[in-house]
Specification:
501 residues, 8 helices, alpha+beta, five-stranded mixed β-sheet, 4 domains, Immunoglobulin-like, ten-stranded antiparallel β-sheet
Length: 501
Amino acid sequence: MRQSCKIFIFVAVISLVAPLTAWTADSLQLNAVTFPERKTIKLEFRGTTRAPRAEVTGKVEFREGQAQIEIEFQNMKPAVLFGGDVTCYVVWAVSRDGTYSNLGELWMPKNSGNVDFSSGRKSFALLITAEPYARVNRPSELIMMFNTAAESKKAPTDAFEFTGLGVAPEHELQSITHIALDSERPLDLMQAEKVYELAQRHEADTYTEDMMRDAFIALGQARNLASKDKHRTDYSRRSIALSSDAIQITLRRKEAEELERQIAERQAEMDALEGRAQEAEERSASAAHALDAAQLAIAEATRLQSETEASVQQTQIELGRIAGEKKALELEQAAILASLEGMREESRRLLKEREALSGRLEGALSQVAETRDSARGLIVNLPDILFDLNKAALKPETQIVIAKLSGILLIMPDLNVRIEGHTDATGADDYNLKLSEQRAQSVSDFLKAQNIDSGRLQAVGYGKTRPVADNETAEGRKKNRRVEIIIARGEITEEDLSEPE
């Protein structure tokens, strides 16, 4: 259900010099910074001619394998000023090799403030784009800002060309540099309504019915509480998150359906060609029998010699005709077999594409947490720092990681999950075993809450019995305190510790 709202804009009369950019339609020059351990590095941001006239700065500190990022902004105008499908700003971490990850929305309930992000990358550039919803998979051409080179000598900077930009979302204005928002409707409610409308246009009601129902309910609650800023914002943000997830899941399921359709279409064509090849083979055999019969007739005519010369000549003509027919059939059969082989090769290519689609699981998981491949399946490691000391409750950052993991599992329903909890050797055996079981069960319960079927989940604790490092050192004990999530098809068996890895 869509409600209309009015946005009033004005254009400044005075012409101002636009900020310099390094952006073209094909590429963007970015600055990848390598962040030192436990040092806070300050970054300045440069805007494009499309961006609002805002002041944006950043602080990055890399510690314990994670880059903690704080982005502060002043006089930032909302993305909805672009009109069309644009609703928000998204922050990206881009590496020199062209890979990128969505760090999240630059949420701005006010035109000034700060937002925290995190990334597992150590060297990257920061990029801000305008997008239709927060959880898009690729940065659009609607570029707002990007960081300049770091001033600190402890953080070396490398400039590189980035060519991974996607198509810009539909928008009515090319720039909001001189545009202002004047509307009585709250910004968060306008965003929630626009993202819900986008989800409906993507047919998310068909593919994620329950999620869209929850998004609609949250949107209705936000509308009812329009005068109560705090509670209204909570409901608006919940509706935005649900609608964004629904769009992402819908797009992936449509992609999978299209691939299945293409495979079925190629299989039908291959079956038809196999039928034609079989028919040609049968016709070739029939022609061979006819040729044998004709040759017998010639032998009989020669032996008898009582047939007239005209009869012999007629027989030879018939033999030539049959031989020509056989030759033509053999050529047709060869052509059909060649076409059949081509179709088989095409089918193999499509199957490889399907396998590649599944293989993107590992790439998606590596953006969520530390991931490694094993004989049992992909293993996602949740370190001890994601739990409070001697507690099994999930920290907020842990919930974010597992929520991202659940989004991946929702679009790949043939994957099963085994969650294994481990501790170090300190403390009593019974206590360690119970703590490891509770942590594994906490992860399992959270996945169930994210609509992951409980039949796909196993949770087990091993206490201190399966260390991966020396418990005599603090570093080794830290590595042993962990929760490992194993993802694979079929039944995931217990690891056999009697065999070397």
